């Protein structure tokens, strides 16, 4: 299977090599490889307009499908759901002609290292942001499919989660075309691989679990729901999200905004003060707090979130918790 994928990709570029579009004539100098997937290889390149990400492969149908997704994303109201699309062309190499497209290069930090540095509590904030984006994607008739931390980056500050690989994005109602076992409900025996919103929401729950178990773990032969819930209960930072995770794992959520609302309601409910102090990273920088300093402040933040347009909810959420948490941190240091 791996050999088949390698032959399908076909294209291998080296740092310093220049790609010249056959039709548009744009030139791209390869800086380094960013990653490989089933449909092609992504490279960091330089161009007349600055750095960008170029994806090349030998399967024109797959490349065209991804271009269509990116073009559709650009028409969705609100913030960009994925990277901006800059160019679509093909180039000729010694061993053949390869289709490619050039998109925005999103520079950021991978989700799991980001959460490990700043505290697992950040996983809930990033999940709220991600669910807002998924709702817009689902409303447009698409399912992300291969949703996993490796396809997400955290940009900023202000911190914002963004996705950059749309290779697994599938039209709603069709069979999921790409998946990663740990985040696939079929792997855990908890559902099928039909592209619907609940498929992505299952993956969001698994990202929350993965944030507390970076090394991941394997499934059992049976009763994997109990295993996942047991793992959730083992981590204090995940306990407050346990009801949300359970509903997502069992397919109870039909829309991303349902899960988003429940997750927002759970943020800030139940982490003891000693656990917050233990969550401080070793660098001395305070981790993202789980609980506002007072119940009154907590209610005020949630009320504001519900009334605020979705495009800026995430920024307010991060800012509110960081400000309150920093005040709490100073109080603890004084005491």
What is the count of DSSP helices, taking H or I runs of 4+ residues? 12
Q: Output the helix-strand order.
A: HEEEEHEEEHHEEEEHHHHHHHH
Proportion of residues in extended strands: 15-25%
Q: In the CATH hierarchy, what is the architecture of the largest domain at level 2?
A: Orthogonal Bundle
Description:
Helix 4 (122-139) runs antiparallel to helix 9 (256-266), helix 4 (122-139) runs antiparallel to helix 12 (310-334) and helix 6 (224-234) runs antiparallel to helix 8 (242-249). The protein has helices at 2-9, 60-73, 111-118, 122-139, 197-212, 224-234, 236-239, 242-249, 256-266, 273-278, 295-307, 310-334, and strands spanning 18-20, 27-36, 41-47, 50-56, 85-93, 96-103, 109-110, 142-143, 152-155, 160-163, 170-171. The strands form 3 sheets. Strands 1-2-3-4-6-5 form a 6-stranded antiparallel sheet, covered by helices on one side. It has a 3-stranded antiparallel sheet with strand order 7-9-10. Strands 8-11 form a two-stranded antiparallel ribbon. The chain is elongated and about 55 Å long. With 335 residues, it is α+β, with helices and mostly antiparallel strands. The longest helix has 25 residues, at 310-334. Helix content is 42%, strand content 17%. It folds into 2 domains: 2-103, Phosphorylase Kinase, domain 1; 109-270, Transferase(Phosphotransferase), domain 1 (Orthogonal Bundle).
């Amino acid at each position: 299977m791996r050999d088949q994928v390698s032959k399908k990709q076909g294209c291998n570029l080296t740092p310093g090599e220049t790609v010249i579009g056959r039709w548009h004539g744009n030139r791209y100098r390869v800086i380094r490889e960013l990653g490989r997937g089933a449909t092609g290889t992504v490279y960091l390149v330089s161009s007349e307009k600055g750095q960008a990400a170029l994806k090349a492969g030998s399967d024109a149908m797959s490349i065209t499908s991804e271009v269509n997704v990116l073009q559709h994303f650009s028409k969705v109201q609100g913030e960009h759901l994925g990277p901006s699309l800059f160019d679509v062309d093909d180039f000729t190499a010694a061993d053949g002609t390869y289709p490619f497209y050039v998109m925005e290069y999103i520079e950021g930090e991978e989700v799991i290292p980001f959460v490990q540095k700043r505290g697992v509590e950040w996983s809930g904030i990033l999940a709220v942001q991600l669910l807002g984006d998924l709702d817009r994607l689902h409303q447009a008739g698409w399912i992300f499919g291969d949703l996993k931390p490796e396809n997400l980056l955290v940009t900023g500050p202000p911190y914002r989660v963004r996705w950059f690989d749309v290779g697994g994005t599938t039209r709603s109602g069709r069979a999921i075309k790409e998946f990663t076992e740990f985040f696939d409900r079929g792997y855990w025996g908890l559902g099928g691989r039909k592209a619907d919103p609940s498929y992505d929401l299952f993956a969001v729950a698994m990202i929350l679990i993965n944030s507390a178990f970076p090394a991941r773990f394997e499934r059992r032969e049976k009763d994997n729901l109990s295993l996942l819930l047991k793992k959730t209960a083992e981590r204090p930072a995940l306990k407050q999200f346990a009801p949300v995770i359970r509903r997502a794992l069992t397919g109870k959520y039909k829309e991303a905004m349902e899960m988003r609302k429940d997750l927002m309601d759970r943020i800030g409910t139940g982490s003891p003060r000693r656990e917050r102090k233990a969550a401080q990273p070793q660098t001395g920088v305070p981790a993202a707090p789980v609980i506002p300093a007072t119940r009154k402040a907590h209610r005020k933040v949630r009320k504001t979130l519900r009334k605020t347009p979705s495009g800026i909810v995430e920024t307010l959420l991060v800012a509110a918790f960081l400000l309150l948490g920093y005040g709490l941190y100073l109080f603890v240091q004084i005491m």
